[in-house]
Amino acid sequence: MLNRRQILAALGTTALATLAPTALFAATSIKPDESSALLVIDVQNCFLPGGSLAVKEGEQVVPVINKISKAFANVVMTQDWHTPGHVSFASVHSGKKPFETVDLPYGKQVLWPDHCVQGTDGASLSKDLSIPHAELIIRKGFHRDVDSYSAFLEADGKTSTGLAGYLKGRKIKRVFVAGLATDFCVAWTALDARKAGFEVYVVEDACRGIDTQGSLAKAWADMAKAGVKRIQSGDIAVNA
Questions:
Q1: Alpha-carbon distances of 113 from 8, 90, 91, 171, rounded to whole Å
Q2: Cα dihedral: 88, 93, 99, 105 (round 10)
Q3: Cα–Cα separations (whole angstroms), residue 162 to 35, 36, 166, 183
Q4: What domains can you pick out in the chain, each with its CATH number?
Q5: pTM
Q6: Which residues carry out catalysis?
Q7: pLDDT tens-digit profile of 41-54?
Q8: Which of 57, 103, 237, 240 gives the lowest tally of CB atoms within 10 Å of its CB?
């Protein structure tokens, strides 16, 4: 456990007022190795400015992700990839509006504006992402009757995307999660990664949240409880 002197040294000039009890402040930089992977979650046009489900400041994650990706030999990206008329769209539920909820066979579902429909420009990854060495793109949410926030499991909690098997086959032991949105797809990915046995870090400044009805605070609390480590991009050693 870090003592007070080590924490202060790691923070440098960062104001103490920004400390969060759930955060991890590394005394030395984290150096990703061959057993580490960066998961870049849903940095797609629909979630960026002008998109149908734009996340506030979502575009700001792109340069941060581009920078930290250089530290990783292993990078996986994800895309929401919904059918037209997907069950998660408010437009298919009579009388319902975006951000209201409905009860579905697998549990409570937040309803969203139509977004990331297969083959549309909105579903495309941001053109400003620059990660040529990314090895895999996982598409999720393509089953019409079930949503899929997590990169590992769909919202029913049992339908696998195959990502856990892929990572374990590559002998990956720890994953770093970045992207959109912190309180939904990032958090669900981080929690399922922990359930799958990985050491998990969420890179806070490489994410942005939606924060509907307290969802952001709850997501961080749930992740902390599960043992997810909360870090900043500056905690990762990136070669110049």
A1: 44, 6, 7, 38
A2: -50
A3: 18, 18, 6, 22
A4: 36-82+120-235 (3.40.50.850)
A5: 0.87
A6: 42, 140, 185
A7: 999 999 999 999 99
A8: 240
